[in-house]
């Protein structure tokens, strides 16, 4: 396909289609979803397929079912909770002793991160602080269920005895549309910005602008968690992009195969959720997707970009201990990787010695006396 030989491509795709199955082993499932994307690319129907998958997901969506799916996923795998524990630890350290807190959440995790943090705030030795949580919503699916998320969060905050205010910023086509003024910042509040798999949804040419906007908020800490896959610098070479996309999703699908029963409905749903990213990456042009843009980078690429506006906020020993305690709840395939060189920032979650998720924390660069801005 990268050699622009359509007849040969179609022939090979049909041969491979004979062994592909969404219900088979890991290789058969990978073949099924990747062939789906490759057929769409060959027929110039990537956007049509993407929109079809999106409509089907939204039509079949149920908030309670989705929450149960995420809880089950967290039970069998630290893929998401790794970033939650590391980020919450950095946030709690940065806000220690503050009484008026404001968390700006740019993530798409549907607030599954925050019950753990609310519980930690409720058990602080000093007076329980007031928490204002601002959630930025930039996908249609999040908009559909935002009322249910709001009720769940307010109910849990009352249960924990944490004074709580929940604010939602919606109506965005792209995350880069958000402005500092939208957050209604107050002088007496300590602000943090949380970005769990958020920056990968920002268009590449706008990422510096978004990071500069975050810096202008003057947060105590910025927490950033991203999956370790490069689908940005590989975009110009379809062969390399395909190889990198397959490498990463093979790890993800193998992890699901090890974590769930072969006929698990949860496993099937998680794999289907990933199918849109595969289509997005391989069958759609950068300008086609109006929302849910997905162009992840690796830690080294993020670090280089982030260091232009922010400096590292290193995870302390207590946070690292909490992350290691989390990983001990799972099988021995999981491990924690610490920075090995001076220029490296953050920590990695590894599965079978392959890095899959990167977690880091940052703070604004202190202005020099010559340049107080």
From TrEMBL:
A motif (VHIID) lies at residues 101-105. Pfam families: GRAS. Belongs to the GRAS family. Residues 283-363 are annotated as: SAW. Keywords: Transcription, Transcription regulation. It comes from Chenopodium quinoa (Quinoa). This is Uncharacterized protein. It comes from the Eukaryota.
